[in-house]
Amino acid sequence: MKLIKPKKHARFHALIGVAGAFFTLLTLTLAPAKADTQYMPLDQLKSIAEAAVHSAVKAPQGAKITIAASNPDDRLRLPYCPEVQSSLPGNQNIDNNVTVKLSCTEPRWQFYLTVSTTIAVPMLVASRALPAGITLAGSDLSEDWQPQNRLSGRIFTDKSVIVGAKLKRGLQAGSAITADNLCLVCRGDKVTLHAGSGGLSITAAGTALSDGTIGDTIRVRNQGSGRVVDAKVESQGEVTVTY
Q: Does pTM surpass 0.70?
């Protein structure tokens, strides 16, 4: 039998075939890495949205602010954008869940992401279950941090301001002490009225006709004249006539 040698052009095509298979394999191996760089990283979208909320939020000094964007669907594929724009559409309450609009002009796309914000502020709370009518002592109060969007009414941080005040409604342990819950001067209390200006000061006995805490204006009847005046609560049993 005569051995037939492959022709030169056949060997050449065989070599091309092997090389082609090699480069095809190399291309398939690199393809996923190349694709990842074409899309916006989901963590980067979250960071941009959180930064937008952080720049817009207004909180009291010393408040604890927590901002967290929701996780986008991990199947999301947005073309990579070198300059993502962010904005808060509409008139949203920033102290809650807000929607942040993310957009890009080149390539053009837009995407909305929900961001939750919690602003916790320090305050005095009930250290135990407190019944209505109790006169607050320092041991009845403790300090805590609570979200401000769950509060209604004025809160307190200084025990000395409200120790001695009467609780109007019972509170569970951990409940915030607000001005609505207590009165430093209560209706029917005997108070001392202070009035005067330019170095002249007059005091008189009076009866409170409404409830109030420090800084509140209440109605007071002068026991001597019977006249009813507006007076500002200064401390327990002490009010100043307002003009």
A: no
Q: Cis bond leading into 79, ω under 30°?
A: no
d(C-alpha 121, C-alpha 123), whole Å = 7
In order, the DSSP letters of 82-133 are SS-EEE--SS--SSSEEEEEEEEETTEEEEEEEEEEEEEEEEEEESS-B-TT
Count of CB atoms within 10 A of residue 238's CB? 17
By CB atoms closer than 10 A (0-12, 13-18, 19+), residue 170 is: middle
The identity of residue 105, as a single letter, is T
Query: d(Cα 114, Cα 118) in Å, to the nearest integer?
Result: 13
Helix (H, G, I), strand (E, B) or coil at 241: strand
d(CA 144, CA 122): 6
Residue appearing with tokens 């409940």: 175
Strand partners, 108: 105
Length of the chain: 243
Encode pLDDT of 73-82 as tens digits.
Answer: 989 999 999 9
Written as six digits, the tokens of 112 are 């909305």
Q: pLDDT by residue (tens digit) across 135-150?
A: 999 999 999 999 888 7
Tokens 């006169």, located at residue: 135
Give the tokens for residue 155: 């809160």
* Distance from C-alpha of 136 to C-alpha of 162, rounded to nearest angstrom: 7
